[in-house]
Amino acid sequence: MSTLTKMALGVMGQLRPRPAKGAAASTIKLPAPDKRAGMPLMEALAKRRSSREFARKPLPLPVLSNLLWAAFGVNRRDGGRTAPSAINSQEIDVYVALPTGAYLYDAQQHALRLVAASDLRRVTGYQDFVDEAPLDLVYVADHRRMRMVPVGQRESYASAAAGSISQNVYLFAASGGLATVIRAWIDRSAIADALGLSHDQQVLLSQTVGYPGK
Ligand SMILES: Cc1cc2nc3c(=O)[nH]c(=O)nc-3n(C[C@H](O)[C@H](O)[C@H](O)COP(=O)(O)O)c2cc1C
Description:
This protein is α+β, with helices and mostly antiparallel strands and about 210 residues long. It contains five helices and nine strands, in the order αββααβββββαβαβ. It has helices at about 5-10, 40-45, 60-70, 155-175, 190-195; strands at about 20, 25-30, 90-100, 100-105, 110-115, 120, 135-140, 180-185, 200-210. The chain has a seven-stranded antiparallel beta sheet, sandwiched between helices. A two-stranded antiparallel ribbon has the order 1-6. α2 crosses α4. The chain starts with a helix and ends with a strand. The model has no long low-confidence stretch (mean pLDDT about 95). Flavin mononucleotide (FMN) binds near residues 49, 52, 183 and 184.
């Protein structure tokens, strides 16, 4: 769908998901992440960049597993994560829009939990490539987990936490030959509707990931 069409639908509150491609499993247990994968950090930093051309090829489950663990997985016995958060609030939820459905990443169980059995990808942003790239992530702040953070700081702290997750994804993508771009040009209310979010949950950013196009 073109950007102009999406903007027109967005103004009318009509930017909606497509039917899912295939049956959506209610839970997807991810394989254990391979923590020895990837290139040296400095090489990944040298390759980090935003890309906006994606092949339609799906991401294999082991790649999705590694990607989500790199993004915001549990990396310590005490439940610590791969990205920081203010007062360890861990307020960011990572939603995973796949052709088969939209899932919430359950970092403790390293699994995906179905939240909507529809293809939400086109709702995750105004740019056309988000519709067909194999994966769009959505970063959502849950303000219920930020009660210890002063009210006036919650949005900026959550945005910083989401930015850290996004950079983890950038470095994972650079290291694994994937393309990615973080996006703020999104219809937050359309995404919140499609994901069935509550008033305590705030859509911050989206990020597309896939194999490079062309
Ligand atoms: C907060 C933020 C929002 C962004 N929003 C978008 C966006 O909506 N669409 C997009 O194509 N790129 C977006 N970008 C990516 C920037 O355009 C990109 O990082 C910048 O052009 C520098 O390019 P580089 O990432 O390749 O270094 C965003 C980046 C940030 C940090």
